Structures are given as C-alpha cells and as structure tokens.
Amino acid sequence: MTWWRGAVGYEVYIRSFADSDGDGVGDLRGLHDRLDHLAWLGVDIVWITPFYPSPMHDHGYDVADYKGVDPVFGAMADLDAVVEKAHGLGLRVVVDLVPNHSSSEHRWFRESRSSRDNPYRDYYLWRDPAPDGGPPNNWVSHFGGLAWTLDETTGQYWCHLFLPEQPDLNWANEAVRAQFDDILRFWLDRGVDGFRIDVAHQLVKHPDLPDNPVADEPDDVEMGTTASIWETLEHRYDSDQPGTVEIYRRWRKVADPYDALLLGEVYLLEAEHFERYVRDDDGLNLAFWFTPLHVGWDVDLLRRALVDGAGFRRGGVAWVSGSHDRPRAVSRFGGGEVGRRRALVLSTLLFGMPGTPFLYQGEELGLPDGVITSEEAQDPIAVRTGELEHSRDVCRTPMPWTPGPGLGFTTAARAWLPFGNRVESDTVAVQRADESSTIHRYRRLVGLRRETADLHTEPVEWLTDEGPLIAYRRGGTIVAANCGAQAVALELPEGTWTIVFDTTAATESADAGRTLELAGHQAVVLRRG
Which sequence spans correspond to the domains of the chain? Predict the structure, then answer.
C-alpha cells in the first residue's frame, strides 16, 4: 500500500499559519516552529500553499520563479528545515505546483512578450486578434471579464483563464513539458514528498481555440458576479481536454522513483468527468473531490456526493470540507453551535471514506469564517471586481494560536489580514487545555482513521439510502450520521457493536445494542466486537 492510503492530510495556507519574523505575514520558519502541533493532531501529510517568488497579484498563485522561495516567506534554507523537521516527526511534505499559468513577471513571459520570434513566444498562448480587432474567441476568465489581453507592442493577445497577470502556459509545447520535468526533479531532490497540482484539469486547451458554447443560465450562482460570468459558457474547449491526463502519466515517470504523490486540484463536480483523472494507476495518484464543498446542508445532496466519491476506482479521492478558496464549513452549515456540529458530522463521514481526507487549517478548531470589513479586504479578486461579499479573505484569516495580542500568530501590531473577531476559545492553546473542545474531537477522529484497518482496505456497503441518516459499513466498522435536527434510530447488523467515536463524546465506548439512537446532528463510528 502506498503511503498516502489511510493517511490524513492538512492544508497550510502559508500566509496565515504562523509568522516568525514579526512582519505580519506567515512564513516557512513559522511553519517549522508549529509543526509539533500537526504531529500532536496526528496528521500525516502537510500541504503547503505556494511560497515561490511572486508579485503576489494572487497571493502566490502567480509564480515568478518555480525554483525559489519568496523573501516574504523566508529562504531556501527555511524550506529545507521544514522538510527535515517534518520528516523527523513522521510527516510528509507536499508543495503546491502551479503549472497552468505563470506570473506575467516570470522570465519566460517577459521574453515571450518581447517579440513574436522570441524563442519563448510559444511557451504561452498568443493569438492574432479577431477580424474586428477584438479577442480571438469568447473565452472568459474565472475571475471575471475576458480571458484575453492585448499586447500593444506585438499586436497579439495572450490567454489567461485567471488574472491578466497570470498568462496561461502552452502545454502543447515540448519545451514547457521539459521545463516542468526539471522543476519536479528539483523539488524532489530537495526532499519534498509530492505536489498538489493547481488547476490540474485545465492545462491543455483545444488547439484551435474555438468559441465555447453559451450555457443555460445556472441555478446555483448569483447572476452578475464573477462566478456567473464563468458559468455563462459551457467550457467545452478550455477545460478537461484530451491529453491532460497524459501530462500526469509523464510526471509519474518522474515522481514514481521518488515514491512521490501527485495530488490534483481537479475542480470538476460531475463524477464522469472527474473519474478519468484517477481511474487508472498511471495518472494522478489522488485528486480532490470538491462536490461536498458545494452542496450545503442537504442530506440528499451530501449522500449523492459521498456515494459518487466512494465509487471511484482505486480510492483515488482526496476528501475536503474546506479550503482557502471557499467559506468555512461551520459558516456554510449555519454558523454557531449548529454549524460546528454539522461540520464535525461531515468530517466524520469523510474520514471513513476510501481515499485520503484533508483538513484545512483551523477546521480542527471549529472556526467559522472571519469577519472582514470592505476596508480590510485583501483578496485581489474581490477587490478588483468590487464583489467584497464574495471575498476569499473570510476563510484565510490568521491561525489563532494563543490568547492575547497577535493571537500567537504574530508579534506585529497588525497581521496582513485581520483576525476576524476571533475569541480566546478559538485558540489552539485554550482548546488543547479543554478535553471537551472541538480540537480533541478532531484529534480523536484523526487517530481513529489511522488505527482502523477497515477504513483503509474494506469496500463501502451503504446501510441507508434515504432519510436523515447516512450510514455505511466497511468490514467490521460502521460510520453513521444523523443529518437531521430530530433524533432517529438505526437498526444495526447482527453482532456486538461498540461506539468508538462520537461527535458529542457522550456515548463513546458504550455498547450500541441492536438499535442505535442518534441525536440531531450527531455522528458515530462503531466497531464490531
């Protein structure tokens, strides 16, 4: 079995995790100094968001040098120290890789932009204007507006599915592919254990760059927002193209000798499109299944997301209930105590699934979204569009470690982003001292995942298919959750069943009997005696 099977991952949003030098921005030395927390929590994989040199138009996802460390995050020696200490604690280190686009300040793009006959011109997607002088096609950006910007000097447009400062690379160019082979080897030789691959489903574009068809008006986005602009088109030619998986088959030849993980951000919510990235054992090892992030607290939709995710062959799913791009689960599910209970119920269901669950920093504390005013907003996308109510800042507020000024995150008078109305009970220190706190429930859940062999190997047998209960069995282990507000009973299979985990902690270690009654928003894990 490969090392990520049965493991638990943890996303570190580096800007907001821990600041070691008092400038208000999280950094690698800060992560190094807080790795003991992750070891105590019991996770196995640390995924670090981009730390590369960058002008920070998209907070590091616009990379200006794929083989360096931005001074705001430290130096290469700090990254080496993180890897060394993590390995000493039994943690694997996965770093973010951004191959769909570079920064417009990357040397490749500056060369590419200098003239039409520059050797780097074909590293990017350049095209002549349409006959009317406008963009080459109707493609739009994820972040609003057209996906094309005109370069006045050379008279052609460059393609960018994100910000204009994030020009898309041309993955039809063998030179680009060879560059990334070298980038992978560079970091693997420094001891990293794998890569989280940003926008993994969009690297390849249709070679003819045809117009995308107009889509039906979607039901689940607010029209007039940047999200709705992206949804106005059916992304038939700029996403999920033939040839994408072949890139990862090539990368496997680089990564496999290092026993390294290729983990894809495959933001496709339809199972049939997602599956081909993890179906065969020669593409991505794992890919994030994001559907649970988009269904709200609706038991039927949650069940469908779980059933689909559990059905993918090889268990190649990385499960998440939060990320640095989406509102936190506690807030999505109603906020307050109800939101915290629901978030822990969903985590319990995910931690029993085939594949690899990931926590987003602060989930173990039951954090809701931070409160950020329009004057405090930092998210470049929200600030540029004026859509501050859709800002990603609310899920990116700094990690609260200890009570007091700076909350143990920084000694600076102000952090790069406000803390968002955190209170003492939100901090790691206060929760670790309280055995009844949320962090201890998550620590127990992480440990249970590690110690329960059934959850690593056995197939999923669904025990319910309707109603407020979601329950499944994997060998001698049952995971059951009441997603409703009222108590409900579950008839258990033959045998003696003991409750080994309870989100409320009230029934842990108890004999469940033949009929298990679950309170509203309660989940348990049972083991057959």
Answer: 107-159, 459-528
Residues 443-472 have pLDDT tens digits of 999 999 999 999 999 999 999 999 999 999
Q: Which two tokens stand for residue 316?
A: 């190649």
CA gap 348, 501 in Å, rounded: 9
The pLDDT tens digits for 236-245 are 999 999 999 9
Encoding tokens for residue 166?
A: 């994030």
What pTM, to 2 d.p., does this model score? 0.96
DSSP string computed for 97-118? E--SB--TTSHHHHHHHH-TT-
Among residues 44, 78, 193, 198, which one is catalytic? 198
Phi, psi (rounded to 5 degrees) for 333:
-100, 20
DSSP 362: T
Cα–chain center distance at 122: 31
308 catalytic per annotation: no
Answer whether CATH 2.60.40.1180 is correct for domain 459-528: yes
Instruction: Record the tokens describing residue 458, joined without a space.
Output: 């056995």
265 catalytic, yes or no?
yes
- pLDDT, residue 1, reads 64
Neighbours of 312 (CB within 10 A): 19
Q: Which of 265, 363, 369, 502 is catalytic?
A: 265
* Span 386-435, pLDDT tens digits: 777 778 999 999 999 999 999 999 999 999 999 999 999 999 999 999 99
The arrangement of secondary structure in 107-159, i.e. its CATH architecture, is Alpha-Beta Complex (3.90)
